[in-house]
Specification:
By secondary structure, the chain is of the alpha+beta class. It is 40% helix and 20% strand. The strands form four sheets. A nine-stranded mixed beta sheet has the order 2-6-7-10-1-11-12-13-14. It has a three-stranded antiparallel beta sheet with strand order 5-4-15, with no helix packed on it. It is an enzyme of class 6 (ligase).
């Protein structure tokens, strides 16, 4: 019997407000433990929360950008559970009246476009963080993150594979970054996902029992966890076992998951309306204003790159996968007459160097216009391809203008025929075997000779001119 996966994601995104959701403490990442907190976010007796208006507006923007309906009447609820990183013993969240509902995002799959429905987006406060000691069987609690505003984006179980889950997460991340409501830095916990997974016989309409893996904070972890859990569940079922509804912990280093606890149901949290906060009434005028403030979204920008710049769909998709990447490309493209070349440099050498240097796009030490200048130097024949790569590396190291680097290091292409002719004659004299091969009809031997000439000129020669001069000498 063949089985298929049924997957739903609960994605938590920290909102980029300057202060927390119910107090004026900073949301800045890091800091000494327990220095970004106050009696309100620590839940001290006698304190009262005040809802952050900007957090609500950001959540509404996220709902509009994901095609949700915005509730005109909503409220906050207490979600009761006891855990060391939750100082109040409850979390202020939303239960039956979420701020946003019934939306969707569209992803690309191997079978074409697919809509992943969004059940709801609600606002809530983040919990603190446990810091586990390496030297003993104990943990510390850092409450700096407590009260940072979150949105939780809950999908319907429309996802069928690890690849689709990754595509869905990438799309959500791009949307949230483009509209400026979250930085989505997964390494800082700004974006993380709980994954609900079940399997069933292929073609069946009945859902299988599900398990959950919590707080996965990288695309790689989500992908690998889903692949492993689907395989585990199929193995259990085929061997006659039963899938238990439980929360499991994913160990990315070992590529395995372990049971943590039985999965809670909504009634286990004993939700009730938050008595310290009044219901929230959203005016239509506010929704309309926030809708008008939305910038160009990733899908719209992708289509514009295809129609305006003539880029292939694949290129446009890569370039709009993150706001920072898209903004860098756009600025370079506006300063260039060869947009496809700019696209190739961004997607190729630039992303490669960023990976090698473990840099963020914001850390690139030169402006996008310098990339446009580099492309122009190539197109004008001032430098050749191999030299351009060296110049680009130097730009990353020094932040200098490519024209300055070329002048300082004397990297202009050698086009002087008299100089190149001497190089060609020397290469012919030093490589008699390759010359003989060429004259016997092995035309590929010319490539080796061109390479030797380029080596002799330290890559500065015009390869096309070298090729022409070699052929003229060998066949003359």
């Amino acid at each position: 019997m063949e089985y298929e996966a049924v997957i739903g994601l609960e994605v938590h995104a920290e909102l980029s407000t300057k202060s927390k959701i119910f107090c004026s403490c900073t949301t800045e990442f890091g800091g000494q433990p327990n220095t970004h907190c106050c009696p309100i976010c620590l839940g001290m007796p006698g304190t009262l929360p005040v809802l952050n208006k900007k957090a609500v507006e950001y959540a509404i923007k996220a709902g509009l950008a994901t095609n949700c309906t915005i509730s005109l009447f909503t409220k906050q609820d207490r979600k009761n559970y006891f855990y060391p990183d939750l100082p109040k013993g409850y979390q202020i969240s939303q239960y039956d009246l979420p701020l946003c509902k019934d939306g969707y995002v569209e992803i690309e799959t191997e079978n074409g476009k697919k809509k992943i429905r969004i059940n709801r987006i609600h606002i809530e406060e983040d919990a603190g963080k446990l810091v586990h000691s390496e030297y003993g069987n104990y943990s510390f609690v850092d409450y700096n993150r407590t009260g940072v505003p979150l949105i939780e984006i809950v999908s319907e179980p429309d996802i069928s594979s690890a690849a689709e889950a990754k595509a869905y997460l990438e799309k959500l991340k791009a949307i949230l970054q483009f509209i400026g409501v979250s930085d989505c830095k997964m390494e800082e916990g700004s974006l993380r996902a709980d994954v609900n997974i079940s399997v069933r016989p292929k073609g069946s309409k009945q859902l299988g029992e599900r398990t959950e893996m919590k707080n996965l904070n990288s695309f790689r972890a989500v992908y690998r966890a889903i692949e492993a859990e689907v395989a585990r569940q199929i193995e259990v079922i085929k061997s006659g076992g039963v899938i238990h509804r439980e929360t499991r912990r994913w160990d990315d280093a070992k590529g395995e998951s372990y049971p943590m606890r039985s999965k809670e149901d909504a009634q286990d949290y004993r939700y009730f309306p938050e008595p310290d906060l009044p219901p929230l009434i959203i005016k239509k005028e506010l929704i309309e204003r926030l809708k008008n403030e939305l910038p160009e979204l990733p899908d719209a920008r992708k289509q514009r790159y295809i129609s305006e710049y003539g880029l292939p769909e694949y290129d446009a998709g890569v370039l709009t996968s993150s706001k920072e990447l898209s903004d860098f490309f756009e600025e370079a493209a506006k300063a260039s007459t060869n947009v496809k070349a700019v696209s190739n440099w961004v997607m190729g050498d630039m992303l490669r160097i960023l990976r090698e240097k473990n840099m963020e796009i914001a850390e690139i030490p030169f402006p996008p216009a310098y990339l446009a200048k580099l492309v122009a130097l190539i197109d004008k024949g001032v430098i050749n391809g191999p030299t351009a790569k060296k110049v680009f590396e130097e730009m990353f190291d020094t932040g200098k203008d490519p024209e300055t680097i070329v002048k300082e290091q004397g990297l202009e292409v050698l086009n002087d025929e008299s100089v190149l002719l001497e190089v060609v004659e020397r290469v012919i004299q030093e490589n008699p075997n390759s010359v003989a091969d060429y004259k016997k009809g092995k035309k590929k031997a010319i490539g080796f000779l061109v390479g030797q000439a380029m080596k002799a000129t330290k890559g500065k020669a015009n390869p096309q001119l070298i090729n022409e001069l070699l052929i003229k000498k060998l066949e003359g």
